[in-house]
Fold this protein.
Amino acid sequence: MAAHLIVGRHKPISEVATDVTPLRESPFWYFLARRALDRSGDKLSRALESLERRATELSLPIQYPRQHATGWAVLLQLFEIATPHREEMGRFGYEMMVAGFDRVFGPNGFSKEALSRLLGNLNSPAFPNRKREETIADTFLANAMRLIDPKAVDPRLDALIMQTCLTDPIMCDLANEAVRPAHELWEATLAEYVRRRPGFIRRQFLDPNSWLFESRE
Amino acid sequence: MNELPKATARVPQTHQPLLTELIRVLQALRKNTRDPSAFPTTNDPLAFYNRYIEFAIALYLSKFRQLYEALATSVEAEQYLVYAAAGRAIIENAATLRYYSFHPDLFALHAAWGTQRMNDEVLRSATNTLDKLIRGNRFTWEAFIAHRFDDLASSPDGNTPSQTKVGTCLDKWYKDHPALRSLYALFCDLVHPNLGVTSLLFG
């Protein structure tokens, strides 16, 4: 077999495509989501506090509960980070992405449902002429909110609350801030994952925490 | 130090060279499987092809090492069913590696390289042939990994290529070495639920 190695140069030949990539492995997406969540910290907290302050100024009876809103914000950030790589991922990579995210974000099935809603909104934005980034921010504003006291709010006001929220420029700016991804996270995480990546059996059947997060020399 | 002391004490003098040879093979495999080889991920076509060759060599060395280790351990422990299973797998893997080592697509690349006949298609065919050796399969691996157990079937899914039947690889080898056919048949009978395995365990 070694005799088949080729040496020397030849005219340029078109690139080859390989579908063997960490993007098709759920532990990679788990690793990425954990790191994104761990690093979201102060910046996201400030954005959520500001959103609630602004909602109060607009007399909106809503809040952005930390755990729930953080899950939405980080998931939408991850979607943005992953989007440039969707061709390389393919359908199977997408399944693995959702499986990896599912280990981080609860409840079970949240990631799939959230991404489905986002894709639905991107296909059919809430307002005409909404740009892609704006639709992602809209998705966050609409889904990460909760009524402070659902019993105290007339359900007929839901549409008005939503419209006020989605059309207020300050709310939109803050939502943009919340869902803006840290693009440097991708390269750093990919490199670290490749460095740590064990063989198939360990990847598939062992707890990924044992090889993704333990310190290594 | 003798790696197989019990087997050495057990087998007659006439068979000692076989044990010596087994230990020699094992030592060579251990020596040559020290360095891991990563699956190639470069998009440069020639680099990819060469890395794939190196990966294939590393993969088969590792396979043979595990199989020979199992063979040696089973001889030492007198677990002859394990011995037969490992032996049969060694023959099948050797036949497959041999089949691909003589594959016309790989020779065509060598013949065309540096000539006017060289083009994308020649390199792509050679790379696809290697891909079949490494990733060929008859199982829905993507469905399995994604836990879509209702979709499991005996055909490849996703973009992975279908395997070359081991029988095809063996047939090719039989043409050069006809005696191999009966050796393989013996190992099959030792593994299948036939007289062979009955003899191994309760003969």
About this structure: The first helix of chain B runs from residue 5 to 10. The mean pLDDT of chain B is 92.
